[in-house]
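# step 3/5: fold
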Amino acid sequence: MTKDKQISEFTDSELSLINAISKTNKNRSSKNELCALTGMSEKDIINTVSSLRQKGIPVCSSSSQAGYFIAQNKNDIKEIRHTAAEYESRAHRMLSIAHEMLESIRRINEKDNGQEYLF
C-alpha cells in the first residue's frame, strides 16, 4: 500500500484490483485478465480503475496500448502524464458538447419564424 494511503480508505473491490493489476509498464494487465483474477465484470473494472484514480492511485492506460498498470517510479512519469492528457482531452470534448447543447437552447429561444424544426 502507498505511504500516503491507508488500507481502510479502499473498498474490497479496489484492494482486489490493486493486488491484481500489473505494477510494470512492460507487463500491462488487460481487462479480461483482471476480470478473471478478481471476479469483477469489465464495467466494474472500469469503474474501480476510475475510483482508484480519483483516490490518487496512478493507474495508467493508453488508447494506443492495451492494458493497465500502476505507476511505481520516475520511469513511469511519462505514462502518468500521457494518461492525464487523455483525460484532459476527453474533458475538453465533453465541455465543448455541453456548450453546444446549451447553445441550442439559445437558438430555440430565439427562433421566431414559426418553423417546427431548427435543423
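# step 4/5: annotate
The first strand starts at residue 59 and ends at 62.
# step 5/5: archive (pending)
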